[in-house]
Structure formats: C-alpha cells, structure tokens
C-alpha cells in the first residue's frame, strides 16, 4: 500500500467494507469447510439420521395415532432441524475461530469487524442449502413429494432464512463463551428443547397444554408449519407470518448483540 | 515508502494499562523513527504484549496516548489499522488455508486492488523464499515456515509501522538468524519496527534502541552498546557444588560488598568487579580460606544479560541485586 495517509473511513466506506469483507470471510470459511468435509457431512448426516430414525421408528405409531401421512409431515420438519444444526455449527465454529490467533490479526486490520461473524453466517447458510437439498432428495426416495416447484423453492428459502437467523443466535453464544467445548455442551440445552418440543417431528396436539403453548409458537414449530404448507401447497394460516416475524426479530436482537460481544477484547 | 521525513512513526506517551488491580504497563513512553528497530525487552509478564496490543488497537489504553503515522490510536483506530502490520504471538494466520490464500485474504481485507494484490502476493512469496510450500495448508508447515508466513502476512500492504511480538520464539537458531536478516532489511527499507523479545542476543543484533521493561515499567533504556557501557565493570562468576555452599559463600561476602547476584538453580554467584572493589583473586581466596570448594569460575566482560539481570528480578535473585 503506497497510501499511509489513509483517512478515517466515512459511513459509505464502512458499508462498502462490510459487504466486501463479508464476501472475503465467506470465501475463507467456504475453503475451510471444503477442507474439513466432515463439517458439511455432520449437518447432513444428522438430518438424514433424523429422517430415517423418526420415519421408521416412530412413523408407524404417529401415523396410526394421528392419521397423517408421516413422511409428508416429517420431511419439512427435518429441513428446519437441519438448518438448526447448521446454526449450531456456526456457534462452535465461531468459538473455535475466536480461540485461534487469526482473530487477533482480523481485529488489527482495517476491515469491518462484523464481517467476521457475517461471513461465517453466510458460509453456513450456503452449506445449509446443500444440506437441505440432500435431505429433500432422500425424502423423495422415501415417498415425500413437493406440491409444486415454487413450493419447493419457497420451502428451502424459508428454511435457510430461519437457519440464518439462528446462526446469529449461535454466534452470540460463541462470542460470549469463546470456548468451543463449552459452546458445544451448552447447545444441548437450547437445541434439544427447540427440536423436540416443537411440531418438527410430531404434531403438538398430544402435548400437555402448558407445553403446547410453547411448542406451537416457538420459531422451529412455526417454521416447520410454514414450510409444510409450502411443500404441501396448503394454506399456512398465521405460520408464515409468525416465522417471518421470528426471523426478523432474531436478526434485530442477535446481529447487534453478537457484534458487540465480539468487539470486546 | 511514503515517509520521507525523519519524524517518529510510532509514539507512545505515558501509557498505562491495568487488568483489574494488577498493573500491566506503567507510564511507558517511547518513539520509533522510520528505518529503525525498537526493541522492547523483558521477561514473561513484563507487559510487552500488552504494550503491542494497545499500540495496535487491540486493547483500550487506560491512560496516556499513542499514535502511529500521526493517527491517534484511540480516536482513529481505523486509520491506524491501515498503516500497521502485526505479527508474532499477538497475531496469527489461518491454519486451514495455504500461505498464498492467507496473503490473498489479508490483501483483500486491506482493500488492495486485485492486480496490485496478486503482484504483491507473488512478490512476497518469492522474496521470502516460500515458493516451495506456498500452496500447502499452513497446518503442514514447520515452526520456521509458520513464523515466516506469520511475519510476511503483516507485510502484505507494505505498512510503514510493523509490530513484531516475539517473532522468533521457538525457532531453531538458523531460522532465527534468517528472520533477523529479513527484519533488518525491512527496517533498512524505511519501516519503523517495534520488536518484543525475551532474547538479549536478538535485541543486541537487531534493535537500534532498547528499552528493558519489568513488571510494566522501564528499568533501563539506550542502545545495546550504551547499556553495556553503563555497566562499567567486569563480572566474576563462581560456581559452587550446591546451594549450601553457595549460601556459605554469600555469608563470606559480608563486609566485602553487597553488590552481587545469586542463581540457586546453578549454585552460581555473580559479582561485578570494578576499580576500587575487591579483586577477583581476593574473593576467590576468601572462599578457599573458608573451605568452600569452587567448582568453576569465569571472569568476563559484561553482556546484555548482565544489564538485563541487573535491572530485572527474573533469573538472579538476591539481597545484593544491584541498583
């Protein structure tokens, strides 16, 4: 650089930096994912694992008990769970990053600091798209059907958007805790209740009232319901709006929060 | 390099930093001019990395002020980040990327235009003789190769101010000498370098000006030569067979001088000998007369080690620590 008389950047510069730097960090995280293929396969294998396990272990009982076509019910749920797993990987991945020295160099560079997290959430979302498509392909083999192409595209888009919002939640936890093992253990406490006390795997109608109040309204359920409406081509009721509200709300809270937590020395 | 004047590039004025109640850096001031290497020398925990972190915008400054290339570190951190390079234990590289990818990434983050960036990456890889391994992931590198790419990554945007935090710690002697030559040639090219080190030889070889810090505060300052001249005396080192013998010898020092150091791990007594003090021969005879067997002794000119030890508590402890 032949220009050491660099001025303090303007707001416009900062915005441009944020976009450029997010692209750079996304590129870096994607190279890292490609070099650790187990990171990609973990999320996908988890999705396939849930798909097979729930369909063949519980599918008969749930189908017989509720009269729903279980594979048609299950696949959209597993979409959302796969995206949630991807968000959990944002959390452990960022915690790992924060423990590495390269973060110190990032902090000393003339770059947008939010890009370190934003780049990772974007890279993880791109990985989520691959994961959800793989789950859909296996679902198709198991008898699952999309009602329309647009429904399929909408379902995948909504799933990935919800996963993206959860990635920022995961990033906030990582930026606070900064220890990959601790973050991994802690994730059990938010991941499992979110996954199981939801409409992802089973209809909530058989749950006790107090649990149902939570299960019907939490983001995983409304996302699963909205995705299901898109795959089936049925009316979604308020689920789509609720899902979008959760996505926007989580981004409003966790983007600034994770950035602030990350900025601490 | 843009700096044509001889005005200091890096200025620290009365820096203070505490972690809770524990002071890490106390009232530290210095200036670094273009083309010179400033050595910050001290034991572990002396406050070297804390100082580097404050100057490179990684840590808030409690009191005092600092500037790099005229930009205030606290008020214009983004401008400062455009004129500095950081390497060593305070920074690192991405282990999962290759050296070339790391340089490419840092070049992008410095917003270097693509043609300039590509040319610079190629130039650095060639200049630092990394061609052979530049396209392997960093996790496969030897310690020396890793340190080298770490330092080279700090150079991507050709910064006028370079901060190297213990850049040669853990390197084998040959890699260390190679890195010294490279750092020297960067300074000769006009870069202002701040170098922290625990190695006296490194400061002696590289630094134009040395500040010795201990527990966050400056205990000595000057060129390597001046610091050694300051210690205007030769040194007698006497090795004993045991700590018991060492303590007996210390007892015999009463009434002679209280200016000496002891090293219990090697049962060694270090006594400065200057004009007008007891002669070495008289001291050795004193121990012999008292029946304390002497394993070995050396009489030598002072080294930067003695300067360091005369100013810090680190290796040598004893009631007679000079000054």
Structure summary:
By secondary structure, chain A is mainly alpha-helical.
Descriptive overview:
- The complex is a heterodimer of chains A (265) and B (323).
- Chain A has 265 residues and is mainly alpha-helical.
- Chain A is 80% helix and 0% strand.
- Chain A is elongated.
- The two termini of chain A are 27 Å apart.
- The model of chain A has no long low-confidence stretch (mean pLDDT 89).
- Chain B folds into 2 domains: 217 residues, P-loop containing nucleotide triphosphate hydrolases (Rossmann fold, 3-Layer(aba) Sandwich), CATH 3.40.50; 81 residues, Alpha-Beta Plaits, CATH 3.30.70.
- Chain B has 11 helices and 14 strands.
- The longest helix of chain B has 16 residues.
- The two termini of chain B are 43 Å apart.
- The C terminus of chain B is likely disordered.
- Chain B is α/β, with parallel strands linked by helices.
- The interface between A and B is large, with 31 and 40 residues.
What are the defining features of this structure?
heterodimer, A: 265 residues, mainly alpha, 10 helices, 80% helix, B: 323 residues, alpha/beta, Rossmann fold, Alpha-Beta Plaits, 2 domains, 6-stranded mixed beta sheet, 4-stranded antiparallel beta sheet, 11 helices, elongated, disordered C terminus
